[in-house]
Amino acid sequence: MTSVIVNASKTYEIKIGTGLLHTIGTEVKKLERAQKICIVSESTVWPLYGETVSDSLEAEGFGVCTFLFPAGEESKNGKTFFDLVNFLAEHKLTRSDLIIALGGGVVGDLAGFAAASFLRGIRFIQVPTTLLAAVDSSVGGKTAIDLPAGKNLCGAFWQPSLVLCDTDVLHSLPSPIFRAGCAEVIKYGILYDPNLFSHLEENGLAFDLEAVIARCVELKRNVVMEDEFDTGARMKLNLGHTIGHGVEARSNFQLSHGEAVAIGIAIVCRASHCVDSDRILSLLEQFGLPITAAYPVEDIYAYTLSDKKRSGGIVKLIIPNAIGNCSIVPTKVSDLKSFIEAGL
Ligand code: GLY
């Protein structure tokens, strides 16, 4: 088991290793004061792991209630959010109780935002069941729901009290979901760590799961501790995301977030003539990720503009100069369309 400690507005531990799902009851016991736990999960994850988690909690004497919603990004909306907070109120959770987010990024974002808002904030635990959630969304306290105008437009920074990442769960992920998470793993290599990038090149999908997740989480932890509220260094984690979100929305979420990020990374590499473009594009392809978008530039541009990261007439793009060296480049909205076009 590997442990990474985050010292942000809240101090918490991220545990990565095998068999952790079964230990959740004893882990929650250590957090003190909680009596009632609401497990938030979705329709594909709950049948696989729900019983293990609730049995472990009940064995330690916790009262458990469960809020489930249909799997998919479409559920990360205001209706599900209000259904969830009403459910918490009906089940009389108090500020000393807690929420467990059992699932991927959608569950973590939605449950985290409910935790941030209900009673002006209650504790929550992230139990990521996808690689993407393990290396990115479960760490660092970004929580949100989508609005009709765009993805993640309504949310809060709210750190979890614990992250439990059971690698056994990730071994059994369907291949497209696992590969989508690899886009975020590759992102960390491009941003900060040439050794991680080389390890991925050498091992492909057979990379060392616990060690690689731990490295990504450590890299993200360092960024979150430097810039928890995303005003500087943390923006770099958006490599591939600004244009990727546009592509993802244009696909009507038929492309997964990870696939869209891979396309976003490929577009910025080509458009900025990154010296390591060939290696980056090859690695994305080696992991079975898409590197081109089949949409007109006008569409990608229009959807990219609805991304919340725009400020005035400027979008901050993250540009890879080389593997392990990326810059934040303020780009005029008026130049964005030709930039995207150059990268298609
Ligand atoms: N997913 C990017 C961040 O947490 O800042």
Name the strands of the widest sheet in spatial order. Answer: 1-2-9-6-5-3-4
How would you sum up the major sheet?
A: 7 strands, mixed
Mean pLDDT reading: 96
What ligands can be seen in this structure? glycine
The gross shape turns out to be globular
Query: Beta-strand level of the residues, as a percent range?
Result: 15-25%
Number of strands: 12
Could you describe the 3D structure shown?
With 344 residues, this protein is α/β, with parallel strands linked by helices. It folds into two domains: 2-172, 3-Layer(aba) Sandwich (Rossmann fold); 175-206 and 229-343, Dehydroquinate synthase-like - alpha domain (Dehydroquinate synthase-like, alpha domain). The protein is built from 14 helices and twelve strands. A seven-stranded mixed sheet has the order 1-2-9-6-5-3-4, sandwiched between helices. A hairpin with a 2-residue loop joins strand 10 (310-311) and strand 11. The protein is globular, with a radius of gyration of 19 Å. The mean pLDDT is 96. Bound molecules: glycine.
What attributes characterize this protein structure?
globular; alpha/beta; 14 helices; 2 domains; seven-stranded mixed β-sheet; Dehydroquinate synthase-like, alpha domain; binds glycine; 22% strand; Rossmann fold
Helices and strands, with pairings:
Elements: E1 2-7, E2 11-17, H1 24-29, E3 36-42, H2 46-59, E4 63-69, H3 78-90, E5 98-103, H4 105-117, E6 123-128, H5 131-137, E7 142-147, E8 150-157, E9 162-166, H6 167-171, H7 175-192, H8 194-203, H9 209-226, H10 241-250, H11 257-271, H12 277-286, H13 297-305, E10 310-311, E11 314-322, E12 325-332, H14 333-343
Parallel strand pairs: 2-9, 3-4, 3-5, 5-6, 6-9
Antiparallel strand pairs: 1-2, 7-8, 10-11, 11-12
Helix pairs in contact: 3-4, 5-7, 5-9, 7-8, 7-9, 7-11, 10-11, 10-13, 11-12, 11-14, 13-14
Bound molecules: glycine.
